[in-house]
Amino acid sequence: MTNNTTPSYMPQTRRQAVAVESISPLAVPPKVAAQMLGYGMTHTQALLNSGELESFVDGGARRVVVRSIHDYIARKLEANSKSTRRGPGRPRKTATL
User: Fold this and answer.
1) Nearest of 23, 24, 20, 19 to residue 69 by alpha carbon
2) Between vectors from CA 33 to CA 32 and to CA 34, what angle results, nearest 5°?
3) How many other β-carbons are positioned within 10 Å of the β-carbon of residue 33?
4) From CA 59, how far away is CA 28, in angstroms rounded?
5) Confidence band for 90, pLDDT divided at 50, 70 and 90
């Protein structure tokens, strides 16, 4: 007869499985942060070096705080909404006959 007990690290019910899957991480690796922002690694590294994104090292692995990614986007949106919009551009040329 086989032992059908579930290991302690696995959820006991489907309800618990859904709850575990819906937890969003507090920190992600820089590569994931770059994907979340739609940036390349060079641009993301520049944001980390400049302090625009918060990060920490845990046992040699760098992690980017997800809240800082959301804050960065909020700052960019705020700056974009405050920027002065230019006019419609140069007037169109009219045909001369």
Assistant:
1) 24
2) 90
3) 25
4) 14
5) confident
Q: Which of 78, 81, 62, 58 is nearest to 70 (CA)?
A: 78
The pTM of the full predicted model, rounded to 2 decimals, is: 0.64
Q: CA torsion angle for 11, 21, 45, 78 (degrees, to 10)?
A: -150
Whole-angstrom distance, CA of residue 3 vs CA of residue 32: 39
The residue behind tokens 């551009």 is 89
* Phi, psi (deg, nearest 5) at residue 56: -150, 160
When comparing pLDDT for 11 and 55, which is higher?
55
pLDDT (tens digit per residue) in 26-40: 999 999 999 999 999
